[in-house]
Amino acid sequence: ATIPELMGIMPAPDFPTAGFICGRKGIYDAFTTGRGHLKVRAKAEIEVDPKTERETIIVTELPYQV
């Protein structure tokens, strides 16, 4: 199979704690050379408490080893 075919089946690595991978070049490099640089970010939401009107950051996905 070619690299584009492999990336169509499995477009990115699967991390156990989730997270968001920024960019695709590092993923392509990992598929072609076995080495690649990935930037993985957490996912978060801001919730407002209706009683106090205070904002709270809720982290829903945290990258591995962060």
Question: Can you give a write-up of this model?
Answer:
The relative contact order is 0.23. A two-stranded antiparallel sheet has the order 1-2. A two-stranded antiparallel ribbon has the order 3-4. The protein has 66 residues and is of the alpha+beta class. The chain has one domain (3-61). Helices cover 24% and strands 29% of the residues.
Question: Summarize this, please?
Answer:
With 66 residues, the chain is of the alpha+beta class. The chain has helices spanning 3-9, 25-33, and strands spanning 20-22, 39-41, 43-48, 55-61.
Radius of gyration: 17 Å
Low-confidence runs of at least 5 consecutive residues: none
DSSP summary: helix tally: 2
Query: How far is it from the N-terminal to the C-terminal residue, by CA?
Result: 34 Å
**What is the mean predicted local confidence, pLDDT?**
82
Lateral strand order in the biggest sheet: 1-2
Strand content: 25-35%
Find the structural class using helix and strand composition.
Answer: alpha+beta
Gross morphology is elongated
> Total strand count, please?
4
Task: State the main characteristics.
66 residues; single chain; alpha+beta
How would the blueprint of this fold be written?
Elements: H1 3-9, E1 20-22, H2 25-33, E2 39-41, E3 43-48, E4 55-61
Antiparallel strand pairs: 1-2, 3-4
